[in-house]
Amino acid sequence: MAKRSSSYVCQSCGAVAQKWTGKCVACDGWNTLAEEADVGTGTAPGVPEARTRGKSLAMETLEATADEAPRMPTGLAELDRVTGGGLVPGSALLIGGEPGIGKSTLLLQVAAALADADKSAMYFSGEEATAQIRLRAQRLGLTQSPVLLAAETNLNNILATLSKGKRPDLVIIDSIQTLWTDGLDSTPGTVSQVRAASQSMIRYAKLSGAAVLLVGHVTKDGQIAGPKVVEHMVDTVLYFEGDRGQPFRILRTVKNRFGATDEIGVFEMVQSGLKEVSNPSELFLGDRGGKTPGAAVFASIEGTRPILVELQALVVQSSLGTPRRAVVGWDSSRLAMLLAVLEARCNLSLSGHDVYLNVAGGLKIGEPAADAAAAAALVSSFSGVPLASDCVYFGEVSLSGALRSAGHAGARLKEAQKLGFKRAVVPAGGELETAGTKLDIERVSHLRDLVDRLR
After folding, report:
1. Correct CATH for 77-277 of 3.40.50.300, 3.60.90.10, 3.30.70.260, 3.10.310.70
2. pLDDT, tens digit, for every residue of 31-74?
3. Can you point out the beta strands (E) in 27-128?
């Protein structure tokens, strides 16, 4: 009997090696190589073998008009915002998040909302029994929703169930790492099994027209586990974020073939499930009743939505040889650069102080326009002078200390006015749309001018 050959596959990037090594040469990951049996082409479900020479295809031009993709509202306005207006029939979505963040709760609410709207929803769980799902539905008050449940990890059984009877409108797989097919001699969760299961479910979605929502585990780095090719194959990639110490959850899209990326939806975890937050700005502003030094309000843009968030800074004299630099919700490298600019361009000596920066509400900010608000909070904490509670800040700080303009300035100002703010400190350069706003605008060209005013 011929001995079956095997190779070692990296569980992080999918690279193949002929022998085991402690470090993957492709992604530099340690202890990520796992032995998997070599299989021929076509053993994975949905991958036909090339037994014919193929046939020529009829090519088309760009002149043909394409209709906009139809939408299927989910009943959750925040989820519809993130997906671009609802689920697209025949699309595949991948949602990732830390364990216990609320992924299963969100998906059960989506399935129940669609089922109540005369849509067919099927929920396949590979991690929980149907009794556990019923208990969650009872806690959420969703027991009357006609959602079809099954606890199954065999991919072939799931595909056979889906092909029987009427096509469902929504199929939920929780999670893709638990599925396995007997055509592969590897354990569930390996690169081969995850790739085969994902490809089969995506192929089913394209052929049947059902929307397929896949749940993916995340690694300790916060990335979706498994090969990166899974994120390339699906149409939409969503991340469910949040701090377990706070009840607020953020659903963020990082890829969307049918809508905008970097859009966020905000939810609040309550006893009855996830509750939508219609005005996130009030959530992230925190308690602004007292005048405390080191708090500045930043007018941010998340996708197409303007959100006001409070940046909190604390600058104290350090007793250590190397002062601490701690930041939560912002880029630590950006904070180090901003501190260097304050010291080099504004003569503000912070080298002997511990610096702490926090974004209120658990939101993570990635846009450079937060530099001006962060600098204002740092100067306020260092000088001990509180900032005006009715003022917002935005603008990018360059290495020379100049304030650069930020996009969507008009939307930022309108959101600030809607929440009762009276003033705004913005960069001097760039066009500013002030139509319809009554804010007192202060144009600042250099960070030194802002520091002198705050001092």
Report:
1. 3.40.50.300
2. 878 777 765 444 444 444 555 678 888 888 887 776 777 889 99
3. 33-37, 92-97, 121-125
